[in-house]
Amino acid sequence: MTTITLVQGDITRQTADAIVNAANSSLLGGGGVDGAIHRRGGPAIRKECRALRASRYGKGLPTGRAVATTAGDLDARWVIHTVGPVFSSAEDRSDLLASCYRESLRVADELGARTVAFPAIATGVYRWPLQTAARIALETVQGTPTTVEEARFVLFDQAAYDAFAGQSR
Q: Which residues share a beta bridge with 20?
């Protein structure tokens, strides 16, 4: 059974087998978590992301999918990049957000990762309401068969931490 832990802090400062990146489809960095992981992880991550774009993901990584690269200078073995859906009040995209977590766990299992640090995927510029995103994240990770021993949600601020803590009771 996977242990779920919640911490408030900077995901780039975590020690884990794998750190999940809330990436954009280009895989080449951006703002928020994505930019922070690329900056702190260094050029090795960007180099592998460019190779992925030149081979399997020429049009970018599809929403809800996940792929791994080195973790570069981060205190992890791998970064698992996943692209969250942009929130829409007109269309239910919950299945795509849940897929980000399932696919990240699938990739973690393929890699043999036992500890995985997750951000609150799609809650920044993709505008997912924290309460809904927290519920989807926690239910999906709890309900997904995996060999990952610890799924750690690293929540950047108090509001995100409170939303996840409120859903985990």
A: 80
Sketch the domain layout of the chain as residue ranges: 3-167
Q: Write out the H or E segment, with its range, that includes residue 5.
A: strand 3-8
Q: Which of 10, 34, 92, 95 is catalytic?
A: 34
User: Which amino acid, one-letter code, is at 82?
Assistant: T
Q: How many CB atoms lie within 10 A of CB 1?
A: 6
Question: What is the per-residue pLDDT across 15-31, written as a single tens digit (0 to 9) for each?
Answer: 999 999 999 999 999 88
Q: In angstroms, rounded to a whole number, what is the distance separating the alpha carbons of residues 128 and 105?
A: 21
17 annotated active-site? no
Find out if CATH 3.40.220.10 is the number for domain 3-167: yes
Q: For 26-61, what is each residue's pLDDT tens digit?
A: 999 988 999 999 999 999 999 999 999 999 999 999
